[in-house]
Amino acid sequence: MSRGLCLAMLFLHIHISTTTPAMNIAMFCNTYLPMLGGIENSIATFAEDYRRAGQGCLVITPEMNEARESTPEVMRVPAIKNVGGSAFSLHLPVPGLISARMNEFAPDIMHAHHPFLMGDSALRNARRLNVPLVLTYHTQWDRYSNFFPNEITKNIVVRLSVEYANLCDCVVAPTASMERLLRGMGVEAAIEVIPTGIDLELFKMGSRTRGRERLGIAQDAHVFGYVGRIGPEKNLAWLARAAICFCKEDSKGMFVLVGKGAFSDTLRRMFEEAGMTGRIVVAGPFAGVELADAYKALDLFSFVSLSDTQGIVLAEAMASGLP
């Protein structure tokens, strides 16, 4: 059974008469495609599965430079784009805009993917329309210390996320360990553990030869690497130090990063200072078959993040047959 169908059936079981043939699900998120990341992929995967299962699904998300236009399946709300030089967009609270679309869409479920910003809109509209509110808890906010100026701010953010969760009818945790963490943080609402599914067939299509040619890596190189957002919260400085040790001991050793993020400059400097300039490849983000090829280009997949709630890339790497 697909994960999206599983979650849709959960909603039906908890909140809606089983005689109802289909639901309309409104998904509110601060980030979405074409931005590439675990949260964005998870939302897109569930939305696709909902529709495949015969459910109506509308994603409400801020405009981005790469995608400003709304479609029948995605509502782009006006936003300040590239906040602080990042790819993040901050939505503008245009009075009545989202409410009017919700009145037209007539959702049976409000599904928030962030407790802040767009999550506020999900909460307000859920209360206004008297429909259930579900939150998927994607982020361990306490592990993102580099985003907060001090411990007080971080603790406030974590507390607010817990209070938001307790206003919901159900909280979705991507893993059982995340469910335990949420309980320890004070979440008292109902919690369901539902991981994000992946396209197994896609990752079987990857080619080691194509991947290495695209990355500019010799076919006989010994390659280990990482796929995902390149940020300090992913513990990549620690991984880079390990990679430098490996490359010093193995003349054919290479370290590959597939993803995007400003922290890549720091990692490059670490290799330069160690005299290993040519032994690191920062490939940028890939999708589709190119992503499958990038996985296959590795001999070993490494994942050392202390902040992820699920790590979809772990499942993708396993589907690619990587140790």
Summarize the structure.
The protein is α/β, with parallel strands linked by helices. The protein is built from 12 helices and 13 strands.
Descriptive overview:
The chain has 323 residues and is an alpha/beta fold. The chain is built from twelve helices and 13 strands. A seven-stranded parallel beta sheet has the order 3-2-1-6-7-8-9, with helices on both faces. Strands 12-11-10-13 form a four-stranded parallel beta sheet, with helices on both faces. It has a two-stranded antiparallel sheet with strand order 4-5. Helix 10 links the parallel strand 11 and strand 12. Helix 1 crosses helix 2, helix 8 (208-215) packs across helix 11 and helix 9 packs parallel to helix 10 (264-273). It is globular. The relative contact order is 0.12. Mean pLDDT is 89; it is low at 1-6 and 12-19.
Poorly predicted runs of 5 or more residues: 1-6, 12-19
Count of alpha/pi helices:
12
Main sheet summary = 7 strands, parallel
Mean pLDDT: 89
Helix content: 25-40%
Describe the structure using short key phrases:
16% strand; globular; 13 strands; disordered N terminus; 12 helices; single chain; seven-stranded parallel sheet
Please specify the SSE layout and strand pairing.
Blueprint: H1 3-15, E1 24-28, H2 38-52, E2 56-62, E3 74-77, E4 79-80, E5 90-91, H3 97-105, E6 109-112, H4 118-129, E7 133-136, H5 151-165, E8 170-173, H6 176-185, E9 191-193, H7 200-204, H8 208-215, E10 222-227, H9 236-249, E11 253-258, H10 264-273, E12 280-282, H11 288-296, E13 300-301, H12 312-319
Parallel strand pairs: 1-2, 1-6, 2-3, 6-7, 7-8, 8-9, 10-11, 10-13, 11-12
Antiparallel strand pairs: 4-5
